[in-house]
Structure formats: structure tokens, C-alpha cells
Amino acid sequence: MADNIVREPIQKRSIEKKEKIIKYGFDLICEKGYYNTNTAEIAKAAEVSTGIVYSYFNDKHDILLEGLKRYSNSIFYPSIDFINDISINESNMSEIIKKVISEFIKNHKLSQSAHEEITAMTHTDKDVAKFFHDNEIETTNVIVKLLQKNGFNFTDLFERVHIIIGLIDNICHEVVYHKHNSINYDTMTNIVVDEIVHILTKKD
Amino acid sequence: MADNIVREPIQKRSIEKKEKIIKYGFDLICEKGYYNTNTAEIAKAAEVSTGIVYSYFNDKHDILLEGLKRYSNSIFYPSIDFINDISINESNMSEIIKKVISEFIKNHKLSQSAHEEITAMTHTDKDVAKFFHDNEIETTNVIVKLLQKNGFNFTDLFERVHIIIGLIDNICHEVVYHKHNSINYDTMTNIVVDEIVHILTKKD
Amino acid sequence: MADNIVREPIQKRSIEKKEKIIKYGFDLICEKGYYNTNTAEIAKAAEVSTGIVYSYFNDKHDILLEGLKRYSNSIFYPSIDFINDISINESNMSEIIKKVISEFIKNHKLSQSAHEEITAMTHTDKDVAKFFHDNEIETTNVIVKLLQKNGFNFTDLFERVHIIIGLIDNICHEVVYHKHNSINYDTMTNIVVDEIVHILTKKD
Amino acid sequence: MADNIVREPIQKRSIEKKEKIIKYGFDLICEKGYYNTNTAEIAKAAEVSTGIVYSYFNDKHDILLEGLKRYSNSIFYPSIDFINDISINESNMSEIIKKVISEFIKNHKLSQSAHEEITAMTHTDKDVAKFFHDNEIETTNVIVKLLQKNGFNFTDLFERVHIIIGLIDNICHEVVYHKHNSINYDTMTNIVVDEIVHILTKKD
DNA sequence: TATGAATGAGTCTTCATTCAT
DNA sequence: AATGAATGAAGACTCATTCAT
Fold first, then answer.
1. Which fold has domain D12-201?
2. Which of B64, C204, D58, D196 has the lowest CB atom count within 10 Å?
3. CA of D38 vs C1' of F16, distance in Å?
């Protein structure tokens, strides 16, 4: 047919509208799930007509992807900039790791449902998976560089960091969602901190 | 919804029918995703009528849950019975862990799509999540007991094992799905094995 | 997706339903035009739900095509069986042709809107066009054989008949739809009859 | 609908705009079909905004009608002016008719899709039908006058010409669109020419 | 005059669930 | 107990037309 051409908004008000669709659409998707959110709801939440949604996006899936681009970083990776100003060494390492973990947990709590839904789609949707994985590598790299700046020069640093991120992710999930009564989170956190220290200090 | 009275099949042939619906329904859901599988397909795959499905299940969701109950163990946790016959000590620990990891990876590969879909739903569906988490605790307990039998008596053993399971899970995903080119999986595995050993040997 | 499988109804009532959809759907399409008839209307006219329409047909277009198969013959070509029992010769030829023309006109009048819409789609829709053209050839052949049985053995009989059908079609349209005030239809018919006689009597 | 006040452009540039909308709009409609062409496309092709379209036209349908007025003659009736300079008599009649037919065919080929679409709409759209039929009468009259100038004075000349136009139209369609393998077009053309001669020469 | 963003009713189609047989 | 036909609400998406700027 007419090959529905997606318009790029130029006027300020239009840009705001597109942005609102992404924001509220993504919010809804995260809150209620992709399949449980329909375009009419998204339009309503964004205070636009259903038609305009299709002026700016090819389809519902596109809104999800744009939302990811805009917000995933803030959802998945909290600012750990504070490390930039500190030189990491064995004596303060534990403290820093603890702080990082608590930042991650705080971050997870803030956007719990978003985190859940996106993690879910990572296992189901190719585009989301790709985005997510690329992001993961990027974050790993950022941390690798940070550590290198602080004198960590292991040949397998990338792998070490990747494992560390996994450890932190796991404990976050544990604390934020699982609510396993049988688990003592403080104890668990201490072990994880210990392990991360171990990973970062053992010889090549 | 709940008005529908669900029958519990008594006759042998009926029981088989219910079982087939669960098996083939769950298969399809794992393969194509919950939202992309419809009840007509499930009925067809199970060689029953669509009507009969609603004699045995309240709704589509129920089929998923029943499938989980039947099959999730074999999907998520491979048989590690071989450890039962071995006494674990510091000298053979590395080897055993390596074996366990490779068993997990093998297992993941066997039911990749099932694993993906269920993991996804864990983040979206309360019932699935509860089921999954209960399962996790159970598995942790099994391993805890196994280790205790082998003389591991840390007070925080449960937490240690929980972290270990997380580490193994992460590396499995990495190997089976991610295909991050920048990662050397052998190196990563070695680090993980090392860490697990570390977790299991450090003093209380 | 599920490759929407089209069911072939087996039960008597279902067959009737499918038939009703074709009948009333085709009626509506002929009456209001293909693009001005929606599936909801068709379903309503056939006294079925919208869903059932898609159990028996792939889409709206399919209904049109099935309608064509069922009804086009009766729309386009009236029964001219009465010729079977008569031997055509130069002395009765004019009378027979006049009778045929009046049959065609009567037929056209009966299903005016159907005729219009289908003729229209012949110019727009490939499937309809193919169907229509195949039909045309078939009809030509039937008449050719009829004439041969009556001793008409021109080498170019097929072409002659094709032209004759065109002439009859044209005069039908003229009489039934055009309403050109300036045209005397009796006169016109007489000329056409004369021409057909001429076509059928001139030497090879 | 009719509430919309349609402006008649006065400025030169505005007139050009309106003309462009008609030209490109009509082109698109002929090419892709009325229902498969949307106003956005028309506006784009005419290099105007969608809004302006509704300053000059009541609706999409109007564009079609205006297009018809402007271009239908060139689509349906080729220039047969060359006859003006020749006096038609029995000896050159066949040649002239052959030439006319080939002109018609050439013309059809040039604007095949336009011809198709408009013919289609003639059967569906009242306005188009009226326009088309008026046109037909007009053309018939032109030819009638031409023949009268050449001494053809049959009382039923109008009807004769009308039939002739029908014959020519039919063979054009046959040649340009149908592609019936079983038909020999040269043979068919010869018969048609013969018939036309017959029509034009037989006594009143 | 002109723009093109915005509207929202309308379209086709799917599918969980029910029900007549 | 079983069938599978039938339902109809709901969803994604389109587009003629209007309107704020």
C-alpha cells in the first residue's frame, strides 16, 4: 500500500508529543507488559490520538525499542560516576563495591516493573535482546576502563568484570524481587563483596 | 473464569488426554512464546478438541502452569546425581564444579527456547515467578544438603550456594545465548570455577 | 503466526452458513461495491458472527471470488438452452438472435448491480479478471460447438462468435444502463441482429 | 462534506497548484486505483500540502472527477483528425477503418491503467458513469457529423456509429488486455473491419 | 493562502472462551 | 465425555478530513 512513512517531528510541540508517546508508552509497557498494553492506551496516556502514534512509529514494537534507547541506561545501570574521583585500592575496595551494590539495588527498586518487563523481553524479542546485549558489553567496557585507569591490568579483565556484573545483578534481583525468606541478604551481600574483591585481586 | 468447573479426569484415557494437552501445550508455548500460541494449536497438537481443553483447565494460563510443574525441573536443573557417589574435597572440587557447569550448559542447550520463555515469564507472570522461586530454593536446599553430607558446615552455606547457582546460571546464559564475541568463554569458565572453589573454601 | 487455517464445513448447518456468507456477502458487494462493504456487514447479513467468516474464508477477497464462482454464470450468461432443440438456419436465424438478445437483456436487468461491480473489478482485480476471461472463453466455446452442430464450419468461427458476444454485451449495457436518450434501442437492436446474421453467413 | 467552502484559485501560482493536484492525483488514481491512492500521496506527488487539497476540492472524489474532465478524452478517444482531410468512399473505407482501429489500440496501450481504472469506475460511480456516457454520446456525434460530411445519410446513422464504436472498443480490449491465446487477433480485426464496412454500406 | 500535524471513526482480523449437539 | 462450530470483544493500523499556526 502506501508504505506508511514515518515522519520525524520538527516543530517543538510535535517533538514533545513524540517524546510523550515514548515516555508514557514505555511506562505502560513496563508496568503492564508489552502484550497487555494496547496502542489506544498508549495514545491516551500520552494525550494524543491513536493516529498520531503511527505518524511517528511504525508500530507498537517501535515504541518499545525507542523507549529502551531512551531509558534503558537509567534503568539498568545507575550512575557510578562517584568512582571516577576515587582511586581504587585494596584498602577501600570493599567499601566501594558495597556502595556500588547499594546503588544498583536502589536503582532497581526505582524501576522495578520496567526492569522486569525488559528482562523478560530480552528472552523473547530479538531486537530487545540485541539492544540489551550491546548495552551489557558497553557497560562492561566502561568499568574495564575505569579499573585499568586504577592500575588493574589483568589480561582477562573483561571476563572478570562480566562475571562481577552478573554477581551484582543477581544479588539485586534477590533483594528487590525474590523475597526468599530463607535468605539473609546481609550475609549474602558480604559474600558477594568478598568474591568481587577476590576476583579483582587474584593474580593473572 | 472461575465459574467454569474443571473436571479431574478419572478414566485412564482422559488422564492421558490431560497429560497430552500439558505436554504439547507447554512445548508449543516454550517454542513460540505464550502470546504467540493459541488454544486451537494446543488442542490440535494434543489431538483433542478445543472444547475439551476447557474441561481440564480453567484457561490457557493454567496449561502453562501445569507444564511448569511437570517439566520445569528437567529444564532448569540437570541431574547432578553423580555427585552423590563422590566425596567432594579440595583436591577434586575444581573438576566436579567444571563437570557440573558443563552439565548445566548441556541442559540449557537442550531446551533453549523453553528456558528462554519461562525465564521471560518469570519476570512478568506472578504465578510463574512464584513457582520458579520456590523451585530455586528447593534446588539450593538439595545442594546444601549434599555439601553438608560432604562436611561443609558453614553457617552461611545456604547463601553461598545461592550465589554459586547464580554464577553458574550466568555463565550458562553467556555460553548458550549471548554470543558476545568479545568474551573468551574458557577464560570465563575458569574464573567462575575458581570463584566457586573460593566460595566453598573460605572460612566462615 | 497461526497461519489462519480455513476450515471446510462438514455439518449441514455449517455448509448452509458458509453458503449464506457467500450469497449475502456477494450480494452486498455487488450492491454497494467491494470497497464499500465491510466484513461486519457481510456477517450481519448472513446472520453469523464476524469470527465465523474467517473460519471459512481467508479474507474478504475470498468471499468475492467464491461468489463469482457460484453466481457469475447466472449473472453473465443466461440460459440459451432453447437453441439446443432448434436447428438454426438462415430463415430462422434472425428470430433466434433476437430471442438470445432479449434473454441477455432480461438477465442483465435481473442482476444489474452485480453485473456492474463485477465488470468493474474485472478491470482492477487480477483474480476477478482471470476468472472472467476464462469464463468468456468457455462461453464462446459453448456457442461455437452449438453452431458447429448446426453446420457452421468457418475456420474463424471462434473469432466470429467472440465478436458476436461483444456486440450482444454492448447492446445489453446500452439498454440496461446507459439510458442515452438520443438512441433508439429498437433500431439499434435491428442493426445488431443484422450484423450478427452477416457475421454468421458471410463466406470464409 | 459540502460545508467545506471550495475556493477557486485566481492567482497564477494557485491555478498551477490546482492543476498539479488534478494531474498527479488523476495519474496516481489511474495507476494504483481510486481506493489504493490516498490524499497524502496525491498531495506529495503534486508537491502541495494535504490541507491545500481541501481548499480546491470538496473531497478525494472531486479530484477524480476533475481529472476525468481534463484527461478522459485523450485517454478514450485518440485523435482521428486525419479523416477530416480525406473523403471517405467505399474504396478506401477498409483502409481508413483499419487505421482508426490501430490508432485506438495504440492509444489504449499508452494509458492502459488509466483506461482500466476509469472503465472500472464507470460501473461503480454514478458521477463517473454520467461523465463517461455523456462523453460517449459526444464522440458518437463527432463521428456522425464527419460521416454526414462525407455523404452518409442513413436515418439511423447515430445508432450505426454507436455500434461501430462498441466494436472497436471491444477489439481494443481484446488486443490490449485479454491475451486470450485461443484468439487470432488479425483474423478478428479483419472480421471487425468487414462488419464496420457492412454497417456503413448497407441500405437504410 | 498555506502547512502538515492531528484527529478518531472505521477496517480487517484474531482468539480465548462458550455452547449446541 | 467430547466435539468443533460459533461467538464477539478487542487489537493493530489506516486515512479522509480538519484545524491550529
1. Tetracycline Repressor; domain 2 (1.10.357)
2. C204
3. 8
